[in-house]
Specification:
mainly beta, three-stranded antiparallel sheet
């Protein structure tokens, strides 16, 4: 798990009333390599009412039958959309690399030709 939050309130554009309550920033999460899965909703929406509350992002490794050597990394990509569209957007969001430790082991069964 990790936390995600805005550093400041979404800006309320001039003369926005009565639509001011509709100002929001939605952050979308995507597991880009098939190694990870997002647990729960893959979108987090911040408004002028909840912008200062962190959201918990939960992820888990995909349990497959592939044996992979040692640990490796999975990638979660973030993107965002602001409403209204003229909300001043920050620079692109960083992706998050998550370490994955495989739980699969190689199995070998020997069968005697005399059995």
């Amino acid at each position: 798990t990790y936390m995600i939050a805005l550093q400041s309130s979404p800006a309320i554009p001039p003369d926005c009333y009565p639509e001011c309550d509709l100002v929001s920033v939605t952050i979308s999460l995507e597991a880009v390599d098939g190694q990870l899965a997002i647990v729960g909703e893959p979108n987090v929406t911040f408004t002028i009412q909840n912008w200062d509350s962190s959201a918990t992002i939960s992820i888990q490794a995909v349990d497959d039958d592939v044996v992979e050597q040692g640990s490796h990394m999975g990638l979660i990509k973030h993107s965002y959309v602001a409403v209204p569209v003229f909300y001043p957007l920050p620079p692109p969001l960083d992706s998050v690399e998550i370490p994955i430790i495989d739980n699969d082991v190689a199995a070998l069964t020997l069968v005697s030709p005399n059995s």
